[in-house]
Amino acid sequence: MLVNVWGYVQKPGRYEVPSSTDLIQLISYAGGPTEYADMQEVQLTRTVRVDKKITKKKYLLNIENLESINDDDLRLHPGDTIFIDSTGWVGTRDALIIVTAVAFVVTAVSQVIIATNM
User: Fold this and answer.
1) Which of 25, 61, 95, 108 has the most CB atoms at less than 10 Å from its CB?
2) Distances (CA, A) of 12 to 5, 6, 26, 98
3) Do 53 and 38 form a contact (C-beta atoms < 8 A)?
């Protein structure tokens, strides 16, 4: 069956896996989570048919607490899409990188202005 895994995994993409594959195995096939993956809110999107109407259903799964997840929720279905977002730390880290770069530029410009005024 074809399934998708996106976000903060080592090798995101579309995978053809055996029908017995579960969510944990799929994440493993994708190389596992990256350093900043938020494994407490893994999003599984599944196409379901309800009363002859096809809809998308979303599940949020806490992979860090597998005891709280029903085995049926870990079982994948054809066309499932898994999305693993980043933890809040990634935004903070990126902001710190930008602030550091700006501070470096301001310091360099200040040094040039001071040197030319002497």
Assistant:
1) 61
2) 5, 5, 10, 27
3) no
Answer whether 56's CB lies under 8 Å from 46's CB. Answer: yes
Contact, 87 vs 37, CB < 8 A? yes
**Share of residues in the chain with pLDDT > 90 (%):** 50
- What is the identity of the amino acid at 90? V
For 69-85, the pLDDT digits (tens) are 877 778 999 999 999 99
The closest of 34, 35, 17 to 26, measured between CA atoms, is 17
Q: Is 85 within 8 Å of 43 (Cβ atoms)? A: yes
What residue spans define the domains of the chain?
Answer: 2-87, 89-118
CATH 3.10.560.10 fits 2-87, yes or no: yes
**Calpha distance 22→2 (Å, rounded):** 12
